[in-house]
Every structure is written in C-alpha cells, then in structure tokens.
Amino acid sequence: MDSKKRALSRRTAATLAAAAVVAAPLAAAAPASAAGSISVLADFEGGAPDGFFSYGAAGFGIVDVAADSPDAKPGQTDPTKVVSYGWDVTAPGSFGGVGQTFAGARDVSAFDGVTLMVDGSGNGASYQVELFDGGPNADASERFDVDLVDDTGGWKEVRLPWSAFTRATDFQPGGAPDDGLGLTTLWGYAIPAVNGADTIRVDDIAVYSDADLTPSVSFSAAAASAIEGDALDVEVRLDLASDAPVTVELGAVDGTATLADGDYADPAATVEFAPGETTRTIQVATTGDDVEESDETFTLGLAAPSGAQLGSVTALEVTILDDDGEVVGPPSGRAAIVDDHESPLVRGDAGGIPVGWFEAQDPSSTVAFERTDAPPAPVPGAPDGNDVLRADFDVTSFGVVVRNFTNEAADAWTTQDWSTYEGIGFWQYGNGSGTDLFLDLLDNRNPGSTTDDAERFVVSYEDDWRGWKFLTFDFADFSRKNIGNNAPNDGLTLTEMHGYAFGSLRTTTPQTFLYDDVLLYGEVEPPALSVGFDRAGYEVTEGDTLAGVIRLNRVAETDVTVAYESLSIEARTATEDLSATADRDFTPVSGTVTIPAGEREATIELPTLQDGKNEVDETFVVRLSDPQGAEFGFVRTATVSIQDDDLADPTLVEDFEATPWLYDTTGKSTLTTREIAADSGDGYEGQDAYENVADFAYKGESTLGRGFAGGEDWSDAEGLSFWVNGSAKATPVTVEIQDDPAPDDGPGTWELAWSDEFDGPAGAPANPENWTYETGGWGWGNDELQYYTDSTDNAGLDGDGNLVITAREVDGEAEGLECWYGPCEYTSARLITEQKQKQEFEYGRIESRVQLPEGSGIWPAVWSLGTDFREVGWPQTGEIDIMEYVGRLPNEIFGTIHGPGYSGGQSYGGIYDFGQPVPEGWHEFAVEWTPEEIVWSVDGIEYHEAVPADVAPNEWVFDHPFSLITNIAVGGNFGGALGDDLEFPQSLTVDYVRVYQAPDTAERFTASTVVRGTGWQQVTIPFDAFERADEQPDGAPDDGLTLTDVQGYSLTFAGKGTASIDRVTVD
After folding, report:
1. What is the pLDDT of residue 6?
2. Which of the listed ranges 659-663, 744-748, 806-810, 870-874 does the model predict with the highest average pLDDT?
3. CA dist., res. 267 & res. 284, Å (int)
4. Torsion, Cα of 553, 555, 556, 559 (10° steps)
5. Is the predicted pLDDT of residue 952 greater than 60, yes or no?
C-alpha cells in the first residue's frame, strides 16, 4: 500500500460535481440550423470523388446505407453511400488520415465554414479537420486544422466556422506560405487521425454560409491535357445547386494549337445546368496526325453566365500531347540491369517481411501482377519471347507492386549499392489514361531492424502516352516519402537499396500497365567516404553496456580510424532527460576505433552504471573526432539516453539528490548537500552506492523545512522517519507537520507568496536560487532557430530592477554553436524554475510586468509547465501560457492552456487585441488559477477563462505543481517566418514575476525526540506521538491530525552542531 499519496486541493472537494459534468467537444459538434447555402465537396454517391486519398495507418471504403438500416442518418429516406474511415495510430510515430485534393483551387471565401456528418463510435479517439489553403498547389499549401473527439456514438453534424481553425503546428509542407487563412485558394482538405484506433463514417462534406449566396460557375481545373486524336472531358461546376436553370457560354482561344489548322474541334456551346445539377462534362475533340511536332496548347473559356456568376477558374489551358515521335530507348553509356523479368517472380518471407515480389493496397483496392510473354506490342528492340511485368491496378487510395531484393532462397531481405549511378529507368506501356503513377525507391533501414522501416523516396508521373516508352528518372528528382514507419531520415544514400515499387494513388477505371528492363544508368563519382554513428540517438537500460555502432557510408579500400569520447552534457536535448553524471550514471570512455579495409562498421562499448534510485532518464553524449581516411558523416555526435529501471518508492518524501532550493532555514544555520559513498566509511546502512545528503549546521534553535506546492496524503502511514548523523552526544529535535489548511476562499484573500523583483547589479545573472538557464539549439519541439545560452549577454539584470532577455544574431560557426539546421544564426535565453527543484507552485495568481520585443518572427513568452513533465511528457503534464506574443501579430497577445487532446494548434486559448502595437509600452499579464478555473488578464482587464468543461471529455491536468518559464524564441512554428521588420538585438524586459496564494493556515502538530550519539541512525516518530502545537497561524482548522492534505514539514535542532540528514520517508 502506498504510504504517501497526492492529496485533493483545498477547493477541489467543493468543485468535484462541476468538474464531472461532460461538456461538448472542443469544436462545435451539435446539430445546427440549416445553412442558407451549402456547397458540397464530397457526398460519395458516385463513390470516392476525384482526388480522394488515404495515407499512413488509415484507410477508407465506400459503403451503402439503407434507409431502414440502424446506421441510417437522421431523416434519411433513400439509400445512400457514405465513406467508412478507419485508423490505428497507437504505435509510436504512426500517423494517418483521409482527404481530398481538388483538381484546381476553389474560392470559398464567401462561405462561413465547413460542415460534415459524422457517425462516431464514441470511443474517445481524436481526429482533425484540416484545410489546404493558399500556395501554388496542394503539396505546398498552408495547413489549418481543428481538433475533434469521437465522443458520441451515432450520427451528428459537425459544423466548424473558419474561426475554429488555427495554423497547424504538427505539419507544414516545405514552401508553404505563412499568411493566414485566406480561403480564396483552397486546394483540398484532410481528416487526419490524432490518436487512438477508431472507425467512423463520414458523409456530406461541404462548406456552408448562413447567407443565401449566388452560385458561381467555374472549370473544375485550370489545366488539362489530351493525346492528339483523343477527346478531352472538361468538367464545368457550380459551387451551389440552383433552383432554376443555369447557363454559361463555352468558347476557345487559339494558342499554338489552332482551329484553322484543325488541331481541335470548335467547342463553342452553351453549357446548361438543370435545377439541382452542379456538374456538367463537355467533350472537346482533338485531331490526330502522323507528324512529329511539339505539344500544342489552346485555352477554353467561360463567359456570359445566366442564373449564376463567374467563379474563380474561368480559363482552362489545354495541352495537346504529340504521339508521333520516335521511341527512344535506354540512355547510351554505362547501364546495369536490375530486373528484366525473364526469371520467375518469386515471393518470399524474411522474418515476417515479404521479400521478392508482392502487392500492397488499401482495403478498397485490388492489385495483381504476373510475368507475361504476350504484351500488346513487343518492347522495342526486344528478342522474340521476351517476358515483361504485367500489373493490374483498380485503386481507390493506393496500390503498389513491390520488389524487395532477396537471396536465392527468398528468405532474407538483401540490398544493392546504386551509389555510383545517376538514375533509374524502365520501359512502360502507357494507356493515355491520365492516371497519376509513381515509382518508390526503398533505401536504407535502421541498424538491427526487424521491421519494414526502409526509407522511401518517390517520383511521380502521369500516364499521358500510348504504347511503349522508356522513362528515366535521375536520383536527384526523388523526394522523401514519409509513410509513418519510423524510417531513417538521412537522405537518399543509395548504398543500401532494399527495393523499389510501381504504384498509383487512384485509378478512375481499372488499368493494366506493363513494365520491362528496370535498369540503372549513368555514372557519378561515388560519395566521399564518411564516418559517423549509425544513428543520432541510442537508448540503453541503466546498468547495461551499449554497443555503439560507428559506420562508413560505404566500404573502404583502406583502414579508417576515428577517435571517440563519452562525456556529460549540460545542454538539454530533444528528449526530456536530464544530464547524466560521469562515474555515477555512466563510465566515461575514450579511445580510437579502426574500421578495417573491406569492412563497413565497428562498435564501441559505452558502459552505464546501475543505482537503486527511481529517477528520470538521463543522457550523455559520445563524440567523434580526428577521422583518418574519411571525413565526418551525417552523425558526428550521438546521444545516449539511460533508461531508468528502478521503481518509485511511494514512501519517499525527500532524499536530497538535488540542491535543496525548496527548503527554508531559520536561525543561525546553513544548509548544503554533499555526496557520500557507501564504501567511504561515512555511509549508512542500506544506502545506494552514492548518496547525496543534507548537511545542516546550526547554532541555537534552528529549523529546516519545506512546504509542498500541492498537499500530500500520508494517512496510510504510521509515522515519519529520517536518517540522521549528528555531531553532538545528544541532539534535541522537534518535528513539525503542517497538516490540512482551512478552505481557500479565493483570489480576494490571497497574499504575496513569492516574487523575483530582479534587483541586483547590472550584468549579474538571474538569481540561481530561483532560475536555471536552459541551453541548447535543437529546435525545442517547434523548429525554433535560436540557441539558448547561459550567458548574461542573453539574460541578465540591467541594474534598474529588471531582467533583460535578449535575442541576438550571431555567427554560429565562429562561436561553435550548432543548431538543428546547422551553425546557429541566433542566440537567446530561456529561464525555468523547475530544474533542480528551485520554485514550484500550485494555484494562485501569477503575474509579470514586461515590455515586449518587436518584429515578425520574434516569439517571447511568460508561461508555466507541470513539474512532472519529465515523467509524463508534454502535453500530459499541462502548460499554462500566461502571455505569448508573436511579432507578426503586433497588436495581439495570447493566453492559452495545453493538455492531452488540446495541445499545439488545438490548444484552448484567448486573444486580447490592444488595438495598437503591444511593445509600445509596459503591460502586466496575469492568470488567476484555481481548481475550477483559470482566468487571464492584462493590465487588470480579464479577457479569457478556461474551466474543465471547456476541454471535456479530455483530461483537465491543472491540478498539480507547475514551474515558471520565461524566454524569447526566434521563428518556429508559432513565431513564424522572420520578416524584414525584425532587427536584432531584441529584448524582453521583465520588471517582476510575482505569485500570490492563499495564506498559510495549515494546522501545526509537533513531536520531539533526542538523537543520542554520533553516527548514522534512523529516527522514526509515530504519528500518534504528535500533538497540536500551541502556536497556530490565523484561521488554522482544529480538526486533529488528519494527514490527508499535508502541506509540509520541518525539523528544528537545538544547541550547536552539524547534522547530516537523508531519506525522509513516511512508513
């Protein structure tokens, strides 16, 4: 049984009923009144719409729902089709979703938001609705999203106004703009999975307006192509169904293709939409010939609408593809056949991974393949009886034919080295279907992997020709493809190729493609020989020895040597670990390792040390230096995270492993800590190999003690124990327990509990009893650009009662500062009260008076983080942003909470608009935090509040101690791109940070004992020996020693001497 438990706060008991009320999801999900105008994006009546897709650990299928089915939608009277969408993203690093990309961008700015019907399971899994806005295409558009929770079984309408969407923080494609949700260029949408495993049904995805809008008529796409001689299907669409007929005139304008030359037939026509109809398809004929010529273009246009207005895409450029050119075969010069399909297409298994040839597809698709000697036409130049690969695709979301390299027995996944070739090519028989196709390359895997974690690279192309054609793709044309399989991320190395795949994301009709003679072509210089670790981060169980792998990027012809060294680090890394201590947590090693000629890797042993303490995981680094015979590779420095394997001691109150910042002393006394070794002669029975103990030197009656930021429950224990080593023959000790307090009457009764006024000489660092400087340049989870330093150049006192945090532009290469993107370009500071247990708080008013920096890309904040974040991680620990500011929005500040299911871009927050730039003056920002609510204010004006119901059914995690943080970030996902208006240096000036809490009313109980003799001994005082103290704070209860909400304890020594103390427990 645990002797020590987390106690309920003073006000929690009175608010349990309110906190238990189940509220609506984060975004409005209740049925709303019918909108004035609805523009349907997908209703699935004709199956999955063009451009519909799935990705990652998700899939979909179109299902029929009868009107009398239990699964019918409310009010459904006819059979209908809906999409069934399932996902499982429970595995670490996994992701997935479904969505739709439009053939052309759509202007939805006249509408008010998105609506969709959702049939949930109610299992609590989370998902998003995400918009693809702006940019030149869907792949480079800016993402905006909103979180939803599957909290209700059955159908409901989810209605999301544009204001519910915020810029996505989990993913933005490269090249995406950062200019806000414009809505004039919407390229599509997605429904990504956030967590859990679930299957929901979705229907009637649409944009809505509460107003009655005029329909707009447009082309569905802005460009199209057809092989000469083919007819092109051109879709014209209305964004809104009309109750009356709608017409629009279709015409053409010559380009390099002309009517006069007979390149295409005159398409002039009146396009008519019957009432309720929203799409019309018009055929435009092109003319074939036998003349080899360049591709030619002309433009279709819309004009003179009746019953509608012209929309955003009124011109469509048509390209007529010439098909009369001579068939060009493989490039001349160096080439190597990978597969010629003359041998059987073997299937095999390598420890559960398919090898050889196999197919993969989503549940709604079918893919098949075989070897055939009867193609529609022979491959140019091929001998009689030549075999080719036939692949049949009927694809809804994705389908591939995969070639994983294997041995003759087809029981191992083997590799090939393609690093000296320029590209890959193959023959393919095209159908002119316009199908989007792709070629995947499967590059290297993680060392020692037993799963398919091969890194994928992809190139896409279109089936826009007929007959045999030899396609070539330089390796430089491939881009990385993330499929959520925890693959390496070290570029297309080409030295350990595991295979390739032919595939399609969608076929409008079943397609058969034929392939032959997959080959490598060209010659490039082999990559420079480089040496590095095989990964950037390792994990090892405490006490074990890690075998670190040092690897070459290819086999060398001569020996390669490199020096290595393991050492502690002070900078925090991308993990939540603390720094490991040499000779306590790990044994530092150094040396030189040789990778012999003809070999590719060598290992080094990195031993760690076992202890008996439950602690957070700790990290050290191992670095390479002085390479001989090779240059440095991708990973020169690797982190090693020591995974703690010791169970927490539920009886432990304090073991002084950290500097005792949370302890207060009175009288003529000093409190320090030191380390003792078990075998030093100064140890005590049962201690760990090394223990930190407190040394309390006193003269006269002196006390050391600490209060708990949140009460603790000791009611299951029988007494308080501690180990002590006194310097006197008889040492009187009085133990005091601060038991339960009176109820907290709220902010009106709070008083100053702690503050830092930042008084001190100019150039001095922040008070080390309060603040720790965190350091590092790993991006801090947000792709931030700065390196946080512990220099007073970045954070120090100004001599006028202020702390000044300054972001500076630097030459990172000259200063030896390495960031996640290369040499650092900026430095700044981040100060926290958590590390080494300096200050922590639970409930109260937290306020700070500051003057902010300015310029687009600057991101200062005063905020707080749960003190258990190293154990439970973010966002489970909770985050309260007292003030956040981003320079790109100069008039606004943000007050926000983050927790499980409502973090990052889906956080719950409020905005205060000053109507003028915030940096122009000083402002006081504050939160008032109680168990039942958090209220934000600026300059005494309340502008936002949060209560548990606002985040339900997600967990309210603001019921435990938090630490304080203040910093300036540069750039990052929220800070945004750096603007021309940003000039360095920029400073956040902090006048003070103050915390107000309820007055101390804890009822006091004391018990006395005498520590007799010197040497270590364990002292235990039963709780029934404690009596109510004569002196009590004003308002203290008088209800006996309950031990259910202990607020703190203290030890008072009398006389003169020194006492060493360790392992305070309740047993």
Report:
1. 43
2. 806-810
3. 6
4. 100
5. yes
Distance, in Å, from the CA atom of 550 to the CA atom of 1051, rounded to the nearest integer, reads 53
205, 208, 212, 213 alpha-carbon torsion, rounded to 10°: -80
User: pLDDT: is 9 or 379 the higher one?
Assistant: 379
The Cα–Cα gap between 67 and 52 comes to 25
Q: What are phi and psi of 1053, to 5 degrees?
A: -105, 145
CATH architecture of residue range(s) 335-518: Sandwich (2.60)
Residue 15 belongs to what H/E stretch?
A: helix 12-19
Chain segment 489-545, per-residue pLDDT in tens: 778 989 999 999 999 988 889 999 999 999 999 999 888 899 999 877 789 999 999
DSSP-assigned beta bridge partners for residue 126: 149, 195
Please count the CA atoms within 13 angstroms of the CA of 878 that sit on its side-chain side. Answer: 21
pTM of the model: 0.62
Distance of CA 829 to the CA centre of its chain: 23
Verify cis geometry, omega within 30 degrees of 0, for the bond prior to 985. Answer: yes
Q: How far, in Å, CA of 299 to CA of 284, rounded?
A: 11
3-class DSSP state for residue 904? helix
Residue extent(s) of CATH 2.60.120.430 domains in the chain: 37-209, 335-518, 652-741+1003-1066
The phi, psi pair for 233, rounded to 5°, reads: -85, 120
What whole-number distance in Å separates Cα of residue 299 and Cα of residue 658? 74
CATH code for the domain defined by 37-209: 2.60.120.430
66-81: average pLDDT:
94
CB-based contacts of 889, cutoff 8 Å, min separation 6: none
Describe the strand order of the beta sheet including 216-219 as a list of residue ranges. Answer: 279-285, 231-238, 216-219, 309-310
CATH of domain 652-741+1003-1066: 2.60.120.430
For residue 235, with 0-12 CB atoms within 10 Å meaning exposed, 13-18 middle and 19 or more buried, which class applies?
middle
CA quadruple 774, 778, 781, 787: dihedral positive or negative?
positive
Gyration radius of the chain over CA positions: 34
Burial class of 376 by CB neighbour count within 10 A (0 to 12, 13 to 18, 19+): exposed
Token reading at 1055: 């006389």
pLDDT digits (tens, 9 = 90+) for 409-431: 999 999 999 999 999 999 999 99
pLDDT for the residue 15: 31
Count of alpha carbons within 13 angstroms of residue 958, beta-carbon side: 29
What pairing do the DSSP bridges indicate for beta strands 309-310 and 216-219?
parallel
**What kind of architecture, by CATH, is found in domain 216-321?**
Sandwich (2.60)
Per-residue H/E/C for 568-635: ECCCCCCCCCEECCECCCECCCEEEEEECCCCCEEEEEEEECCCCCCCCCEEEEEEEEEEECCEECCC
> Higher-confidence residue: 91 or 383?
383
In DSSP terms, 394 is beta-bridged to 366
Q: How far apart are CA 976 and CA 968, in angstroms?
A: 13
Cα–Cα distance measured from residue 1005 to residue 497, given in angstroms and rounded to the nearest whole number: 72
Class of domain 530-643: mainly beta
Mean pLDDT of the region 825-836? 86
**For residues 576-589, b (16+ Cβ closer than 10 Å) or e, as one string?**
bbbbbeeeebbeee
CB 186 within 8 A of CB 108: yes
Report the topology of domain 749-997.
Jelly Rolls (2.60.120)
- Residues 722 and 1067: beta-carbon distance below 8 Å: no
pLDDT digits (tens, 9 = 90+) for 578-591: 788 999 999 999 99
For the chain, residues classed under CATH 2.60.40.2030 are 216-321, 530-643
The pLDDT value recorded for residue 570 is 63
Q: What share of the chain is helix, strand, coil (3-state, %, to 5)?
A: 5, 50, 45
What is the phi/psi pair of residue 533, to 5°? -70, 155
Residues known to be catalytic: 879, 884
